Amino acid sequence: MKKIKMMFAVVLCTVSMMGIAQTKKVAVVTFYADKQVGLKDVGLEAVSLVTDLRNDPSFNLAPLVQQFHDKFFKEYATKLPFTLLPETTVTSNAAYQSFKPEFEPGFEATRYVTAPGYQSITPNYGKANVQAMTKLFGDADGVLFVYITFELNKGFGIGGTASTKMQAYTNIVLYNKKGEKVFTINEHANSKKTGIMVGGVPVMKPDKILPMCQSALEELMADLDKRIEKIVAKTVKKL
Asked: Is the pLDDT of residue 152 over 70?
C-alpha cells in the first residue's frame, strides 16, 4: 500500500512539474552561425586563412542557418520544457532592432550570419548582452541564445597531405530572468565529407569548406533528433 502511495505521489509531482514547465515562456533572442572556422585542431592560428574565407561572399552560410532554424522551431522547440514566445515578439520589437550588442575585442558583427529578423548577440562577452536581453524581454521567464560554430579537425595523412573533417557545434544557452545561466547545450558532430591539408595547410576554398559545413550540420541535427529530450529533461526546476 505504501508503495502505491509513493508511486501516486511521484506521478502527481511529475504532472505538477509538467504543468509548471508549460507555463514558462522563453524568448529566443538570437539565432546565427559564426563564419570564422576554427583551426586550432589542425595546429594553426592562420588568421588570414579564416579571414579570407569569412569575407568571401561565396562562403554563404545563410541556407544552413535557415535549415537549422526551421528544424529548431518546428521540431526541437516542441521537446523543450517551456514554451517559446512567437518569433515576431522579438524580431518586430523596435528596441531589440536598435540594440547595439557588445562583442569581444577583435570580433565584429560581419562574421555572423543570422536568421531573418535576428541580431547577432553573443552571450559570452561579460554579462552586458544577457542583462540587456532579460531587461528588454522582462515579461518572459528566460531568454535563449541559439548559434552554431564550425571547427576544422585534422585526420590521418601520408607524406605532405592529410585529411580534414568539419565539426559543427550547436550552442543553445538559456538564462532566467535574473540573468543566471540555466543550461547550455553544446553538442557537436563530424562531417562525413572530408577535405585535405597540403604541406600542413588546409585547403580553405569555399567550394570545399561549405559542403563540409553542410555535412557536419546534417550529422549534428541527426544526433540532436535522438538526444535533445534527454539533454533538457532535468532543466525544469532551474528556470
From this structure: yes
Give 157-174 pLDDT, tens digit per residue: 655 578 899 999 999 999
| Alpha carbons 111 and 100: distance in angstroms, whole number | 15
Asked whether the whole model's pTM tops 0.90, one would answer: no
The pLDDT tens digits of the residues spanning 127-146 come to 899 999 999 999 999 999 99
Note whether residue 19 is domain-resident. no
Number of domains in the chain: 1
CATH number at residue 149: 3.30.160
**Whole domain around residue 87: which residue ranges?**
25-238
Beta-carbon contacts of 148 under 8 Å, excluding residues fewer than 6 positions away, are 32, 33, 34, 64, 65, 68, 168, 169, 170, 171, 217, 220
